[in-house]
Backbone:
């Protein structure tokens, strides 16, 4: 093992951003779309009973830190180790609950303050864009300048972050480099991270030497759980792909059978048309022979194969 632990783990992430207010303030100001006059200045952490409840699977794969600033704005910071489409809905639900919980019944709506959900995702989100930063808010469909301020959701795809291609916000890049480059294999941290006071402090917090044997066991258990969850998810995806493949094969077989039925029906109709034409040819021949008056009806019937009754009717 190298000098550092991975900051994305439950133990390390919460120790950095859940116990050091100035570090989570730095993270929020770096990651959220805040104007200069809206920057976070101070925070207080939510009490334990206010933290959103998790299912068993979510409890193992989601790390969160929740706080409120001096302007009463709410912030939910999450590290999501796995990804499914249902997470977007869960993030929206939890942010909505936090928004609604700000006022008691009968209190004026003007007291409501924005809720920001900042989500680091350590897996591809299946969003068809190259960018790693995804910002969602309530925007007028035709005029994007018209915004209903209330809920803002930010998803950051860590696998898509590449520092050499982004230069817009220095602290954002430094924090994302910290989250993506520092892990158990790191022997020496990059100089750019060491030079920044806040990131340097975070690096010291994740040094292996700072953790007790019990904490290291909890750290290893977290990654075992994540590995198991990823394996289960991969198995589920493989089963889903196999099931989809069977459906597609059955659909192709059904289409082949339908094509054969349609071909048989076409051949039947063609045969019926040929039989009808042949019969009409016989009738036409019988009419001509009868009009020539050179053969009896019995002879015409034998020559054409038509019944004597049919010949009489011509």
Residues:
């Amino acid at each position: 093992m190298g000098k550092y632990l991975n900051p994305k783990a439950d133990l390390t992430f919460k120790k950095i951003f859940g116990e050091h207010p100035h570090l989570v303030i730095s993270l929020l100001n770096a990651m959220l779309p805040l104007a200069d006059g809206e920057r976070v200045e101070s925070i207080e952490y939510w009490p334990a009973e206010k933290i959103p409840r998790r299912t068993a699977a979510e409890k193992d794969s989601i790390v969160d830190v929740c706080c409120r600033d001096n302007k009463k704005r709410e912030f939910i910071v999450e590290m999501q180790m796995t990804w499914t489409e249902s997470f977007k809905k869960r993030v929206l639900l939890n942010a909505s609950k936090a928004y609604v919980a700000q006022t008691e019944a009968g209190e004026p709506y003007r007291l409501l303050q924005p809720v920001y959900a900042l989500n680091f995702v350590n897996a591809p989100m299946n969003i068809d864009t190259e960018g790693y930063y995804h910002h969602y808010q309530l925007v007028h469909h035709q005029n994007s300048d018209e915004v209903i301020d209330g809920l803002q959701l930010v998803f950051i795809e860590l696998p898509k972050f590449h520092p050499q291609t982004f230069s817009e916000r220095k602290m954002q890049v430094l924090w994302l480099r910290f989250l993506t480059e520092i892990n158990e294999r790191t022997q020496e941290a990059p100089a750019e991270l060491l030079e920044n006071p806040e990131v340097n402090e975070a690096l010291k917090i994740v040094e292996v030497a700072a953790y007790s044997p019990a904490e290291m066991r909890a750290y290893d258990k977290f990654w075992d759980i994540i590995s198991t969850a990823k394996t289960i998810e991969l198995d589920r995806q493989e089963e889903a792909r196999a099931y989809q493949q069977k459906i597609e094969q059955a659909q192709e077989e059904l289409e082949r059978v339908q094509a054969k039925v349609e071909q048989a029906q076409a051949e039947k109709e063609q045969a019926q048309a040929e039989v009808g034409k042949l019969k009409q040819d016989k009738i036409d021949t019988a009419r001509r022979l009868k009009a020539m008056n050179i053969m009896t009806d019995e002879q015409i019937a034998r020559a054409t194969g038509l019944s004597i009754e049919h010949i009489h009717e011509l």
